[in-house]
Amino acid sequence: MVGPREWLRAHLGFRSRSSNLSTTVYQGPRSQPPNDSAPQVQAELFDRAENDLVYELRPPKSEWVISIEEKLVQARQDNEACSWAKLSIYRIPHYLMDGDDKAYVPQIVSIGPYHHGKAHLCQMDQHKWRCLYRILERSNGKIDRYLELVKKVEKRARACYEGTISMSSYDFVEMMILDGCFVIELFHGDSKGFAELGYHPNDPIFSSKCGSMPMIQRDMIMLENQIPLFILDGLFSLQHHGLFCLQLCHPHQEGPIPKLALRFFDPLKPTKGRRTISSNNRLEFDPLPNQGELPCLELFRQSLLNPKQVPEEEGTKVSPQKRQQLIHCVTELREAGVKFREKETDRFMDIEFEDGILRIPRLHIDDGTRSLFLNLIAFEQSHINNRNDITAYVIFMDHLIDSLEDVRHLHQRGIIEHWLGSDAEVADLFNRLCKEVVFDQNDSYLSELTERVNEYSSRRCNRWRASLKHNYFSNPWSIISFIAALVLLALTFLQSFYAVYGYYRPRS
């Protein structure tokens, strides 16, 4: 069988050296003398023709192979881009969805690309344009500078969002400016008053009388409804200073935007009182890597955490076998002698256990609590640069609350205050939140506390003392009955004693 090389030699007129026939060589134009490099040129022409022939003789690639190669090329590009390095705004994981879209889908206003253009949210667009017009008019600004600012960081902003954003460059930049200015105007109006910004007292959105403001706040704290902090920082600096601020490249938590954001979202905190953040107060948490890429949701989450809360030292760690034990419900712990008391603090995660008393800060529960916790848990489940402290707290409360009796006792102790229909709905709320959460108990900041509570409740003397108190000293009537029973028992004993004593020692 004739191979490609032999076939090529035969058809191109090449001859072997053993043949008496002369070799045909390209000599160039007739006017030029023969060149000593002619054999080299001949060899190059032969190799090139041979490669083309071999390529033509190969069978064509199937569509399946072509599709796989295209996917590998895309995978290589994604791997080189490392787009996940700045990823901070995610979609709700599918396993956390339970059919209640209102818990994670905005109902009034969209911020960012995930829900942009949805029909039920388009009504707010006219107020966004009106807001941008008022800002430009108030600051004598030019829209060209806003476009130039956001255009410079468009790639960085896109990298913050999970998945591919299919919007064109013009639409994405326009959306960032509209949504960013809208958010800043709400922050600024909440701090200084919308009247000072030039809005009418009866304005449907930018007014202290706006009845939909709580719903807007709830929408703006959702995981899928976020905008990076560096965008807000840059737009704010452009509005108030008329120039590009250095914070656009290196934003920090001491700037105006974090303080304004925490003040705006403060009513959503599940604590018992509003804590106003003044302009002179230092924010009580440490900066994280890529702080500018983080959204307002993470800023809010950090404000809920205890600043003194640090990872445990290696010497104080509890063995994994013990740490994996879960805390019992309120009813079982009460039977084991554990008492529940409210702790006076606005840090709702600051839980303590000492001398058989479990102190838990008060938790306010309303219709928006489930949405708040769901989005915070979803962020912790998605983001890799933070601890799962909110998740640990919710799972801890879920284990404590197993029935409406548990909720009723915590309510009586001032630990839970709710505006839901019944105590059973509160128990169902925590059970639904933690139903599909994937969580390592060894990473919980409450692991050591849980171990101490379980150790205390496992002692028999504590159980006996608790049983005595619950059965005989739970109310005044039980105490009176117990004392009466003791007196009756003592009198019966004395009567029996004197009867026996008189029998053996009769009077003389």
TrEMBL record:
The chain crosses the membrane at residues 477-504. Pfam families: DUF247. This is Uncharacterized protein. InterPro entries: DUF247_pln (IPR004158). Keywords: Membrane, Transmembrane, Transmembrane helix. It comes from the Eukaryota.
